[in-house]
Amino acid sequence: MIARKNMGKASPLLLVLLSLGFGFATYNLLTMVMHHKGITSGKLAESSEGANWFDPVVEMPREMNGRGGSNAKYHVALTATDAPYSKWQCRIMYYWYKKMKDLPGSDMGGFTRVLHSGKPDNLMEEIPTFIVDPLPEGLDRGYVVLNRPWAFVQWLEKANIEEEYILMAEPDHVFVNPLPNLSHGDNPAAFPFFYIKPAENEKIVRKYYPEEKGPVTNIDPIGNSPVIIKKALLEKIAPTWMNVSLRMKDDPETDKSFGWVLEMYGYAVASALHDVRHILRKDFMIQPPWDLEVGKKFIIHYTYGCDYNMKGELTYGKIGEWRFDKRSYLRGPPPRNLSLPPPGVPESVVRLVKAVNEATANIPGWDAE
Questions:
Q1: Locate the Hydroxyproline O-arabinosyltransferase-like domain: which residues (predicted)?
Q2: Strand 285-286 to strand 299-301: parallel, antiparallel, or no bridges (unpaired)?
Q3: How confident is the model at residue 5 (pLDDT cuts 50, 70, 90)?
């Protein structure tokens, strides 16, 4: 039943065959679910961003002319758990969404935290939340991100979403500039990740994307977030994304090779199976400490630790005399008024810490969370 929407209109016969292939391996699994209801990339970006001719569009589908956005509102959606680590990030993210939503240049519409805990938590009144079921216990094998595609399948099926487009975001995103709708009609917009390399993993990728579909370069180097996509397209892709991700996790070779980015490959492959190509926007977000300046970028993704000595020199891989790392706060939120970085630290890191401090200073009951 989960695959009810995943065939769409893309290569019907081939996708039916693919679905049957996936189905033999995952039938019992999916029935149970329904029953239970880089581094170098950053440096390259730095060098290009310093040039006057910097072009934020990495790649655009050939059939498109111009770069105009869709100029339509999108719904901001992020999947989350009810763990303290997830909750404090969601609170900061939602604070910055509210600040940016109505500024000139923003196409933000509504907001939903898609909570895949299966039960309410103490943020229900603070953040618009839609509760969905997690995967059955043990099914994610400790890889909690595997709940993300299943959460989107449920949300898209059950929720009333007014906007035509959806931004798939994550709790550790901070909006730093008003974000327009970067997609173009049926071509979603996505951020290119340097470590998603379908061509270099062709042997594995071909298990899920057969040669009949074309070259593996049809698979975009992306994850599901950040992505701005038509709701109708995501409704088709999401079940395939879930099925492919589950198949990948169930295959030891794939699981070992893709590791913590497995679900990202799942989305990239699922999109390609539906012949969906993304506009690759390297200005979609930055990732400190590797990206040094905010400029006109839209999102700070604070997934990497920021460690520096008091001379402002990066000590990545070694705990710095000054540091900001979200993993330092696994059991509870960071305190208000974090110390600012020492002189010489890149503007992106300074901006991030100031954004966190502003949010925590203005969110009621922060220290009690």
A1: 74-367
A2: parallel
A3: very low
Residue closest to 172 by CA, chosen among 295, 287, 262: 287
Cβ–Cβ < 8 Å for 3, 240: yes
Q: Is 85 exposed, middle or buried (0-12, 13-18, 19+ CB in 10 A)?
A: middle
**Distance between CA atoms of residues 222 and 213, nearest Å:** 18
Q: Which long-range contacts does 355-359 make (Cβ < 8 Å, 24+ apart)?
A: 355/92, 355/96, 355/174, 355/176, 355/300, 356/92, 356/174, 356/324, 358/95, 359/91, 359/92, 359/95, 359/96
Rounded to whole angstroms, the Cα distance separating 139 from 359 reads 35
**Looking at the predicted structure, is the pLDDT value of residue 1 above 50?**
no
- In a 10 Å sphere around its CB, with 0-12 CB exposed, 13-18 middle and 19+ buried, how is residue 328 labelled? exposed
Whole-number Cα distances in Å, 138 to 104, 243, 255: 45, 17, 16
Q: In what order do the strands lie in the sheet with 173-175?
A: 173-175, 299-301, 285-286
Upper half-sphere CA count for residue 95 (Cβ side, 13 Å): 19
Interaxial angle between packed helices 347-362 and 84-100, expressed in degrees from 0 to 180 and rounded to the nearest 10: 100
Per-residue pLDDT tens digits for 110-121: 999 999 999 999
Note the pTM of the prediction, 2 decimals.
Answer: 0.84
Spell out where the chain has E strands: 57-59, 74-80, 108-115, 129-131, 165-169, 173-175, 189-190, 227-230, 279-281, 285-286, 299-301, 306-308, 322-324
Q: Is the dihedral of CA 329, 152, 222, 60 positive or negative?
A: negative
- Nearest partner of 306 among 342, 264, 269, judged by Cα: 342
Cβ pair 190, 281 in contact under 8 A: yes
